[in-house]
Design goal:
Elements: H1 13-16, H2 19-22, H3 28-41, E1 47-52, H4 58-65, E2 68-74, H5 77-82, E3 89-93, E4 105-110, H6 121-133, E5 135-147, H7 148-154, E6 159-164, E7 168-179, E8 184-195, E9 201-213, H8 215-224, E10 227-234, E11 247-254
Parallel strand pairs: 1-2, 1-4, 2-3, 4-5, 5-9
Antiparallel strand pairs: 5-11, 6-7, 7-8, 8-9, 10-11
Helix pairs in contact: 3-4
Length: 255
């Protein structure tokens, strides 16, 4: 197996401490229901799922509650440590570019723009190769990503998000830098966390490089690794993809 750069392993280390708080309002229940609907209309009412980039396991646990058996792979050891493994869901630390489970699954999932974190050709090719290796003919690869037409049309802007909880007050500033020739956006995060119990404060920064894709790029990757595309739509809504569609969900089938 080839060696892959491991700089991603530490990308979420500081972020991990506040990850669930930062995405407290994220509709995980609705997203899991959406993924279940995608699986159902493609004939998968139950079965074994391999999740690339499982984070703290929220999607995986919800899908397990729906009757699937989910195994997550997450590059951040701190994220894995924060995950709660339950009946039907387990996870491990590992690089999705290199993981070899030694078996196949009914579907491979990669949610919350994990594919867009694979910014080099080497890594994105490897992710598609690992997905193919873990699927038999007819198996599904379902993932979402930043969509190039929307990035070019809407252009990322500075965003400030403030969240207040019982014990902590958090402010997150996201400052993007666009690299048009690389199809990348570098999102520079500054996070201020104020512990309301102890009065202490913490400030940290992280840089998250993100790659966006067009459907022809996805189709080329699919064909190279023995897939064909059967669906492409706006994530969660199911609307047709267009210039206003920041996140697109694609379903590929293994040939």
């Amino acid at each position: 197996m080839a060696e892959f750069p491991t700089e991603q392993a530490g990308m979420f280390d500081a972020y991990a401490a506040y990850y669930d708080l930062l995405y407290h309002g994220k509709d995980y229940v609705g997203e899991a229901a959406y993924i279940r609907a995608v699986l159902l209309r493609n004939g998968l009412a139950e079965g074994e799922l391999l999740e690339f980039g499982s984070g703290t396991g929220k999607h995986g646990r919800l899908l397990a509650e729906m009757g699937y058996r989910v195994h997550g792979v997450e590059i951040s050891a701190k994220m894995v440590a924060q995950s709660h493994q339950t009946k039907g869901f387990k996870c491990q630390q590992g690089d999705i570019c290199a993981i070899q489970m030694g078996r196949t699954y009914d579907a491979v999932l990669s949610l919350f723009h994990v594919v867009s974190y694979q910014t080099t050709n080497v890594r994105i090719q490897a992710v598609f190769a690992r997905a193919a290796e873990h699927l038999s003919a007819g198996g599904l690869f379902v993932f979402d990503f930043w969509y190039s037409p929307a990035v070019y049309s809407q252009r990322p802007a500075v965003r400030v998000k403030r969240m207040a909880y019982e014990q902590v007050d958090i402010i997150r500033i996201a400052e993007p830098v666009i690299y048009p020739n690389e199809n990348q956006v570098e999102v520079n995060y500054t996070i201020y966390a104020h512990d309301l119990v102890t009065g202490t404060a913490q400030t940290f920064t992280e840089t998250h490089p993100m790659r966006h894709f067009s459907l022809p790029e996805i189709d080329l990757l699919a064909e190279t690794h023995g897939f064909h595309r059967i669906e492409a739509e706006e994530f969660l809504t199911g609307n047709p993809a267009g210039e206003g569609t920041w996140g697109v969900c694609v379903t590929l089938k293994r040939n």
